[in-house]
Amino acid sequence: MMALITTQKAAEKLGVHITRVQQFIYKKRLPATKVGRDWLIDEKDLALVRDRKLGRPKKAEKGAGKKPAKKK
């Protein structure tokens, strides 16, 4: 039997804000079912986003990846 939880409970279990859980749902990284105005998530599906990379990607080194300026 599936253990369905709310986005609030999922956020608590993942240690993130509820809007982050909603982002996972909207980006199709976390399967969920909409019931009325609420999203319900199968608790076992939290494993899909639990081991994610945290934070923002590092910026490239200065000058790396830039195209050379065009000469006029």
| Principal-axes shape call | elongated
Q: What radius of gyration results from the CA coordinates?
A: 19 Å
| Low-pLDDT stretches | none
Q: What's the rounded overall pLDDT mean?
A: 86
Element-by-element helix/strand order: EHHEEH
Cα separation of the termini:
69 Å
Binned strand content: 15-25%
Fold blueprint:
Elements: E1 4-6, H1 7-14, H2 18-26, E2 33-35, E3 38-42, H3 47-50
List keywords for this structure.
alpha+beta; 29% helix; 3 strands; 72 residues; 3-stranded antiparallel beta sheet
Short summary:
With 72 residues, the chain is α+β, with helices and mostly antiparallel strands. The protein has helices spanning 7-14, 18-26, 47-50, and strands at residues 4-6, 33-35, 38-42.
How would you describe this structure to a colleague?
- Helix content is 29%, strand content 15%.
- The chain is α+β, with helices and mostly antiparallel strands and 72 residues long.
- The chain has a domain at 4-50.
- It has a three-stranded antiparallel β-sheet.
- A hairpin with a 2-residue loop joins strand 2 and strand 3 (38-42).
- Helix 1 crosses helix 2 (18-26).
- The radius of gyration is 19 Å and the shape is elongated.
